[in-house]
Design brief:
Elements (H helix, E strand, L loop, with lengths): L1 H48 L4 H7 L7 H15 L19 E11 L2 E8 L2 E8 L15 E13 L2 E12 L6
Antiparallel strand pairs: 1-2, 1-4, 2-3, 4-5
Helix pairs in contact: 1-3
Amino acid sequence: QESGQVNWVVGLFLTLFLAVLLVTTIQSERFRAAALYMEDALASSNLASALVNLEEYGISHRILIEDPSEAYKRYQRALKENLNLNAEWCGAEESVISGPVTVDNYTVYNVDGEKVWVYRVGADGKRIWEERLGTATAPNGIRIENTSVYSEISFDMEAFPGVSVRARKGKLVDVTAKEK
């Protein structure tokens, strides 16, 4: 009878272990899929905001984002569509996003010769400054070599039923990169 109890306890332990392993694996895959989804949405929104000055390109062959303020407005519209957000910037009912999305950083890097003009919209408002080509880096550590757009968002994501975590995702898109 004691042997039967041991087998029953071991069987129960293994069943619980496998259940926890399954839930952890599913949640891990859900986080990975959400990260890829967010990265694609950020890349698409960054590209949608890249309003290139065609006159400047026609004259000098330099690609510059013409109006960073208008580019930011366009980015917000594109992000809202790409993430399927409502008027309060929250995700749909069965969305990966369980709370409001916040744009923490939107930065345009206009490369003009050896200068990099940086236009940033963040929690601290708008800022514009100049850096040197080769020393300018995006918040994710990537060196700026061409006209680029960086954005970073934060959002609530349901980790387990009833438990939300605040997640952040950033993406730099080089507007002028050539295929290799």
